[in-house]
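Ticket #4471: structure export looks truncated?
Reporter: QA, pipeline team
Priority: medium

Steps to reproduce: submit the single chain below to the structure queue and open the exported record.
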Amino acid sequence: MALYDFIKDAITLAQKADNGELIKQLLEIGQMALDLQNENAQLKKTIAELENMRNFEDDVVRHIEPYYTLKSDGEDSGLYYCATCFGKDKIKIQMYYDGESKLSCPLCKTSFSMTPQKRIQRIG
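Actual output as written to the record:
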């Protein structure tokens, strides 16, 4: 990092000049630069998370029943995800069939009857 090298060189010169106040100020500048670098990294991480969430939201197909599907899974994939868990905790939990016509979430226990007619009902 060029800024770090610049500050390091400036501190070396200040030490040679025996200027304690300048050394102190340069160390403070170095700490501020490090803090800014850490903040920048955190902001980049937050931006990436928000972009991922936006892309995920664009992929979601909402339904009347408490589940959602994903466009990227394909329309006939048979994969259903719990809208309750996503709405509450922003987690993607795949729902499962009980062997009959009931779809259930293994985490929050949301369940409902899933008839073929309900599978095609979408919101919006």
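Status: closed, not a bug. The export was complete when the record was re-opened. Leaving a note from the reviewer for reference: The chain has two domains: 2-53, 63-120.
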